Amino acid sequence: MKLSLAVGRSVTWLRILFALLFSMVAIGVGSARAHEVTPVIADFTVKDGQVALELRLNVEAFVAGINLDGLSDTNETAQAADYDELRALEAQELEPMVQLFAEEWLETFSLQAGGPVELRVSGISIPEAGDASLPRASFLELTGEIPSGADSLRIAWPAGSGGVVLRQNGVEEPYTGYLQGGETSPSIPLQGGAAKTPVEAFVEYIPVGFTHILPKGLDHILFVLGLFFLSPRVKPLLLQVSIFTVAHTITLALGALGVVSVNAAIVEPLIALSIVFVAVENIFARKLHSWRTFVIFGFGLLHGLGFASVLGAFGLPSSQFLPALIGFNVGVELGQLAVIAAAYIGVRLWFGRHPKYRGRVAIPASVTIALIGGYWFAERVFL
Questions:
Q1: What is the pTM (predicted TM-score) of this model?
Q2: pLDDT band at 366 (very low <50, low <70, confident <90, very high)
Q3: Sign of the CA dihedral 36, 33, 56, 140?
Q4: What span, in angstroms and rounded, lies between the C-alpha atoms of 177 and 154?
Q5: Cα Rg for the chain, rounded, in angstroms?
Q6: DSSP 78-147
């Protein structure tokens, strides 16, 4: 009797913990898309003794002085309010600030090609202020003179600048790589030939996929948790996850290949709606019905399009497209498995066999997930 009472109290406290946790998530990520940190894309070309770099970046985060290393959301920083104000500025108001930032930032940017290369700002392109729920992608153009006789270069990406995708252009077998703030690229031959091997491309893109789930993929995490809370049995969970995996792999590949392209303004609300659906069904269904598997497959296709849009921000090396794509997908699956493992160890292992698990854990958690998904749907459609 005492043991049963203790377990019952533990389940009650667990239910409260779920409510608090998910409420904090809902409050904290209402505008996650606007504040999500994305990597800089740096396309560089060497021609006629000159190097030209075109940086696609969320320049407001840089101007605000945010340290982007290891950061997933600008709301977590002391400069969040400054960042929001900068995002609301028109291009002509922001451009002088970008010029001042770039001149100072270049002092920390190192490009070596048989000696140091002095870079200068040759162009700034800032789109007009638009949808505040989306980050604004600006372009910063840098140029410099390559010393005579240089046959390779190295780029040291400044600390605090977050991640950067380096892409060589205009040569055969171009280099493509990913650096974190403070890291230096390998020696890159100016004439090309530094394309990654299949194994290197595969390994490099695994963490890209993993971090899209943990910690950045809150909507995908909630969807997986929605699958988790349907039943305390492992078999239905594995079946659902397998169906979801097959589906999102299909559209991830098609989206990365450019065969399928759907506007994010359509995909993102539907992803939020998929979270609501699986969570609400958990409340009324006690087992996995055959028709739910088809619904999960359809939702998996949607989530795959979401994954493809993220992968598009990183770019895939053209010479090793397939290994990089597979590596990204493996990373996504490892992230999903990590979510399931954490939920299983933290919840089901201890409370899954309790007779009141469904009423005191699964249903309250599903209600909370549905509320968050509903809020995201409304925010993405109407706000």
A1: 0.72
A2: very high
A3: negative
A4: 12
A5: 23
A6: TTHHHHHHHHTS-HHHHHHHHHHHHHHHGGG-EEESSSB---EEEEEE-PPP--TTS---EEEEEEEEPP
Note whether 69 and 183 are within 8 A (CB).
no
Six-digit token string for 87: 């995002």
**Residue pointed to by tokens 């997986």:** 224
Q: 239 is written with which tokens? A: 């079946």
**Burial class (CB within 10 angstroms; exposed 0-12, middle 13-18, buried 19+) of 172:** exposed
Q: What is the pLDDT of residue 142?
A: 97
pLDDT tens digits for range 131-186: 666 678 899 999 999 998 899 999 999 999 999 989 999 998 899 888 999 999 99
Which alpha helices (H) appear in 134-216, and where do they start and end?
A: 198-213
The residues, ordered by sequence, that sit 6+ positions from 73 with a Cβ below 8 Å of its Cβ are 29, 32, 35, 36, 37
Six token digits for residue 258: 């450019």
DSSP codes of every residue in 214-276:
TTT-HHHHHHHHHHHTT-SSHHHHHHHHHHHHHHHHHHHHHHHHTS----HHHHHHHHHHHHH
Residue type, 120: R
Q: In what helix (H) or strand (E) does residue 377 lie, and over which residues does it extend?
A: helix 363-382
Residues 183 and 70 sit within 8 Å (Cβ to Cβ): no
